[in-house]
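Give me structure tokens for this 158-residue protein.
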Amino acid sequence: MQSIKEGQEKEKLDHNYDKEIIIQPQVKFVNCPIRTSLGILGKKWTILIIRDIGVRKINRFNRILESITGLTPRVLSMRLKDIEKEGLIECIEKKKSSTMMVLWRLTEKGKDTLPILMQMVAFSSKWYADLIFEDKRPRKFSEIFPQPEAREMIMSYI
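Here you go.
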């Protein structure tokens, strides 16, 4: 049997839930923007490839392959083509002595994904600290990235 205090607490929670704000867009979407973005960003390995190119500045095929455990050369090649086709990265060919060097870099569109990645870091650092940090202690984004540029990157879309 429920005590009076427990009943009051449940009633308070129910009442607060009813007062939550529902955020409705002020324009009609033809397609869900989240689903649309996930069409490319949600493909396996894509976010990690963008992270390596944009955040870690790993821009060569073999270096990307080395940095992402489990990623195969065939899949990396396919993902790079997909991401390039979507306009998130571009291929730069540089001649180095007698050989050609292929490098990848983010386009302006690709750079616009970086605040999303930084938000994922903030979310995971708070809610999955036990899987991310050795001491299992949740951290704020500002503890991980104290540089003002990191906060500006996230705030650029708000």
